[in-house]
Amino acid sequence: MHCAQAMWHRLVPQKMLGWPTRGETAALHMSFVHSRFYHALGVLLHYGSPLVLLVDPDPKSVGQILTSTRPGILETHPNTYVLWEDLADAPGAPLASVRCFGSTFDAIHPRTVRRLLGASKRGSPWLTQLYGQSETGPVSAWWYTRRSARKVNSRLVGIGLPGFTRVRVVDQDGNRAKPGTHGHIEARTYGRCLTYLGGEQLYKRQLDGDWWRMGDMGYLNRWGALHLIDREVDQIDSVASSLEIEDVLMSRLEELREVIVVPNGAGEAVPVVCTRNDEPLAPDRWKRATEDLPALAGPMQWRFEDLPRTSTWKIKKLEIARMLASGAVPAVRYGG
């Protein structure tokens, strides 16, 4: 449940972030029921940007539309950007005109950041990453340029928005964690929702005074920048960060469309992988890519279409873990 004041506190910093690209044509492919969509409209219409709304995420369809409209702003879900990596060298250079790529729903893989920025022909393109959730709106932001993308750490999700939000990391007892120490991420923002309709007690359990428990594990570096480790409910005892492993594998294996590391019934870390065009996963390449990583169970190959997802294409890891535990596995084939 939200109110006008909270929505205003979310909209204003997003308007400030949108000022450098004011008036540029914007192409959007995102869930129409997500709060980000309406804030994006508020920003783009305020600055008079022509809008291109993309319904079909298929790269062939998107490539044709981007080539004909030449947007300067492009925003979609991180998992859709992975699919659109194919546009980087597609006929007509559909990403050539993009000055700003927006990724505001989830952390994005480093490989994807490099391919997107490398495909732009603009002088100084950048990718903006916002971290937040529906209950809070964006609470931190970070930018990647071509230069910084060479050493991109996509789990670095930025700093609080000055004057609007603050972020901190606390230990199990609620005490502030030292820089570099892992803990629970909390945020303080005027954009926080008022309550959960019919779920007041659940809402209160997320509060620590004025601070809101984000449900993620992470740490702050010495300069106060926030790094994600894992969702609290997605932690696996045998690995420090499943998100980091996923990023490494995506960077090392170009044929992967997605990789998700989840626990099986025995608590082992199981990589569920999807390849482009469902091509077989080469066992020798997988072995070389994982030889210096924490111990993993053999990979399970699924079709991307079989991965349970939210409306913003976030992968439902808990549901995949339940599927593995119950044996309801729609595997295409096994690697290893």
UniProtKB/TrEMBL annotation:
PANTHER family: LONG-CHAIN-FATTY-ACID--COA LIGASE (PTHR43767), NONRIBOSOMAL PEPTIDE SYNTHASE PES1 (EUROFUNG)-RELATED (PTHR43767:SF1). This is AMP-dependent synthetase/ligase domain-containing protein. Residues 27-196 form the AMP-dependent synthetase/ligase domain. Pfam families: AMP-binding. InterPro entries: AMP-dep_synth/lig_dom, ANL_N_sf, ATP-dep_AMP-bd_enzyme.
